[in-house]
Amino acid sequence: MKLLRLISLLAGLSMTMAGASAQISLTPPAAQPPAGAPAAKKEAPPKPKAPPAAKQPTAPKPATAPKPAATPTPAPSPAAAFEDPNVDVVYGAYQRGMYKTAFDLATTRAQHNGDPKAMTMLGELYANGLGIKRDYAKAADWYQRAADAGDREGMFALAMMRLSGRGGATNREQAVKLLASAAKLGNPKAAYNLALLYLDGNTLPQDVQRAAELLRVAADAGNPEAQYALATFYKEGTGVPKDIDKAVRLLQAASLADNVDAEVEYAIALYNGTGTPRNQAAAVALLRKAARQNSPIAQNRLARVLVTGQGAPMDKIEGFKWHIVAKTAGKGDPELDERFSEISAEDRAKVQEAAKKWIGTANK
User: Fold this and answer.
1) What does the pLDDT look like over 138-185, one tens digit per residue?
2) Fold of the domain spanning 87-185
3) Which site in 1, 112, 113, 323 is 20 to 30 Å from 11, CA atoms measured?
C-alpha cells in the first residue's frame, strides 16, 4: 500500500555532453524536495539537502492493501479454516477477488473468534468498497478493533485514516502513536511513514537522525521506498555519515524492487562507476526500463546516450524520440534541442511521429 509514495528527488539532475566524441557523465546534483510536499524546517549548518518529505495520505488501494494475514496458502474448505489457524481462506478469497466470500468469512472470524486479522480485513473491504458498500466510518471502526487487539496492520491502516481524516476527524497525535506502535511490532510501512513525519517537521519536530533510524528499519525489511530514501541520506550525509557505497547498494536493492527513482540513480551510478563497478550496458538497460515507465529523467538520459552513441549504439531517431517525450513531460534539454535542429527534415519527421506514437500509447 503505497499511501505516501516518495516522489523523485532527481528533478534537478544534470548530465554534461561536450560533443559527440566526448565522454558523457551522469552526475546527480543536490536533491530537491518533492513538489507539493510540506516544507521541512531548516536545520542549523550543516543543513540536510532536502530529504524526502511526507505528503497527504490517500485512501488505501485494494491492489496494495496491507496484508491482513500471513503468507497466503492454497485455500481449503471454510470449515477447515477454523480447525487450522495457520490456514487463511479469508485472505485467499481476497486475493482471488472473491470479496463477498472474504467479507462473510472475515465477519464470522471477527465475531466468533475475535480474530484481529479478520478485523483488519473487514476494515480493508469497507475502506475500498470491495464486496460491500464503501464506508470509511465502519472501516475505521474495524481497524480500531484490530489495533486494540494488537494487529500491526490494523494500527497502520487506522493511522493513515487518522492522518487523512477519513472515517473520522483528522488526529495526527493518534496517528503518530499508532505508527510508532506498528513500527515497534515490525511493520515496515509504519516505520517508513513515521520517518517521513520526522522529516516534514510539522507533525513532529524535525529529527533527521531519528528518521534515518526508522528508514533503516524499513529498508532492512525490504521496503523499496525506504531503501531509496535511505540511499539519498547516505549519498548526501543526511542523518548518517556520507557513504556512497552504502547508498549505491540501497539503490540497487530498491531498483530490483522496481522503484523507478532508484532505477534512474542506480543507472547513473553504473554508468559512471560510482560506488560500483562501471557497467554502461546495464546502466542503459535500466534507463530504458525507467524510460518506458515514464520517468522523464530516464527518458532524457537515455536520449543523450543514444544521440551520442556513448554507452549504446548510436540511434538518433530513437534518441531524439525520447528527448521529445521527456520535453513534453517537462524535462527540456536545450543542447538536445540544438542537435535536433541539425538533423534532416526527413529524420525530424520520423522522430516526431515516433514520439507522438509513444505519447499516445502512454496516455491510454
Assistant:
1) 999 999 999 999 999 999 999 999 999 999 999 999 999 999 999 999
2) 1.25.40
3) 1
Compute the distance between CA of residue 348 and CA of residue 337 in angstroms, rounded to an integer: 11
pLDDT value of residue 361: 81
Q: What is the mean pLDDT of residues 12-19?
A: 29
Strand partners, 67: none
Q: Which amino acid is at 32?
A: Q
Grid cell, residue 89, equals 481462506
Query: What is the full DSSP assignment across 7-71?
Result: PPS-TT-EEE---TTSPPEEE--S--PPTTPPPPPPPSSSPP----------PPPGGGPPPSSSS
Residue given cell 533527521 in the structure block: 208
Give the three-state DSSP class for 235.
helix
Q: What are phi and psi of 15, to 5 degrees?
A: -145, 130
- Residue 179 vs residues 173, 184, 193, 207, 356: alpha-carbon distances, Å: 10, 8, 8, 16, 45
**Grid cell of 314 as nine digits:** 548510436
For the stretch 338-354, pLDDT in tens is: 999 999 999 999 999 99
d(CA 284, CA 268): 9
pLDDT at 15: 32
Q: Which residues contact 3 (CB under 8 A, 6 or more apart)?
A: 57, 58, 60, 160, 189, 193
C-alpha angle 314/316/322, rounded to 5°?
110
Beta strand 25-27 pairing with 14-16: antiparallel
- Angle between helix axes 116-128 and 99-108 (nearest 10 degrees) is 140
SS3 343: coil
Rg (CA), the chain: 24
For residue 47, the one-letter residue type is: K
To which residue does cell 540501497 refer?
A: 250
DSSP assigned state of 128: H
- Give the pLDDT band of residue 20 (cuts 50, 70, 90): very low
What is this structure's pTM?
0.74
